[in-house]
Amino acid sequence: MTTADKPQKQPKANAKAVAALAGVSKWTVSRAFTPGAYVAPETRERIMAAASELGYRPNLLARSLTKKNTHIIAVAIDEVKNPHAMRILDAVTKQLQSKGYLALVLNITADDDYQSVIEMADQLQVDGILFFANTLSSELFEIAHSLHSVPLIQICRNSDDHLNIENINIDGFRAGREIGQLLMAQGYRRFGYMKGPDTDSSHLLRMEGYQDALSAKNFSIDLMLVAGKYNRKAAYQIMKAYLDETSPEHRVEAIFCENDILAIGVLEALHKAGNMRSIAVVGFDGIDEADSPVWDLTTYDQQTEKQVSEAIRRLTGSETEESSEWRQGRLIVRRSHIRH
User: Fold this and answer.
1) Residue-by-residue DSSP string for 258-311
2) Could you tell me how far CA 128 lies from the centroid of its own chain?
3) Which H or E run includes 168?
4) Burial grade of 35 (CB within 10 A; 0-12, 13-18, 19 or more)
5) How far apart are alpha carbons 210 and 246 in whole angstroms?
6) Average pLDDT, whole number, for the chain?
7) 246 in helix, strand or coil?
8) Are 206 and 282 in contact (CB under 8 A)?
9) Which of 42-46, 61-65, 117-121, 236-240 has the highest mean pLDDT?
10) 165: left (phi over 0), alpha (psi -120 to 50) or beta
């Protein structure tokens, strides 16, 4: 087929062509496609018919840029394989779309160069950044604010005090205390804790709350395991090594894992060792996998949808609620915290 034989791509219809066919001004066409703008019903019907005939679609992004409001919110996220991260992303995209916004997902990884992904958000002139990752570093914070000075809210984590940004997070200290009290009520006397990344625990406060509950009854965290990341295989390997090196009579009786993925890795290691219920295990996040009859994992549901709603209200300029219900999660009691 020669170049002459190839079907030629038809140029896109524009507002001027729609206006000419409908017998109105280009300005009236623009108003017809602007939510909330008044156009006489019969005129709007005529414009929509002309647009349909010509295959016209308004360039919403270009129009938004002229108004300095793109209705795009960037979502910076890492640990994308973590089911809890996917749960957050699902809630964010649904809630933004219901408000007429789009989500621009920025995959932030620990070893990546933040500059390129934040520059992408800057070029699209996003209206805000919702940050959901393990740690908001000073470097990333400075990059985000030096480029476009967009509002930035961190969700499900606390940031360092010197960053002075808004945080939407549950009361992790209270959650940790509830878990400590739950385990002590079972009569356990030796307790462990498993972290993901070895970051400052103040980002979550779960460990502090757990430790506070234990110390109130003259107990302490006897074992600290660090997986290095929120990864099931990493948790499995760390726990397996602990079981291999420690005789049953010297092991902890209960362990609180910083999230459900770590807890499942711990349960897998216990299963491999011959008795999945020989140590009590509690997770955190309330992911769907925790409800599996295989794991029957006792966990703490952050009810992240509420946190997402609050963060989006603030980023989009909507009226925020005075109540702090979004700060409260709920303990989900199953069977994994009970030793057999």
Assistant:
1) SSHHHHHHHHHHHHHHT-TTSSEEE-SB--GGGG-TTT--BEEE--HHHHHHHH
2) 15
3) strand 166-168
4) exposed
5) 23
6) 84
7) coil
8) no
9) 236-240
10) beta
User: Taking the chain, what is the end-to-end CA distance rounded to the nearest angstrom?
Assistant: 75
Contact 334, 298 (CB under 8 A): yes
Euclidean distance between CA atoms 287 and 297, whole angstroms: 10
β-bridge mates for residue 332, sequence order: 299
Helix axes 260-273, 83-98, angle to 10 degrees: 150
CA nearest to 209, candidates 184, 175, 234, 162: 175
pLDDT, tens digit (0-9, with 9 covering 90-100), for 180-232: 999 999 999 999 999 988 876 567 889 999 999 999 999 999 999 999 989 99
| Residues 152 and 114 sit within 8 Å (Cβ to Cβ) | no
Two structure tokens written together for 309: 């709603």
Report pLDDT for 138: 63
Band of residue 165 on the pLDDT scale cut at 50, 70, 90 = confident
Question: What is the total residue count of the chain?
Answer: 340
CA-derived radius of gyration, the chain: 26
Identify the H or E element spanning 213.
Answer: helix 206-216
Which residues contact residue 131 at a Cβ distance below 8 angstroms, ignoring those fewer than 6 apart? 76, 152, 153, 154, 155
CA distance to 177, 282, 321, per residue, from 302 (Å): 15, 14, 18
Amino acid at 210: Y
pLDDT in tens, 286-339: 999 999 999 999 999 998 889 999 999 988 877 666 667 888 899 999 999 998
**Residue 117: φ, ψ to 5°:** -75, -35
pLDDT greater than 80 at residue 125? no
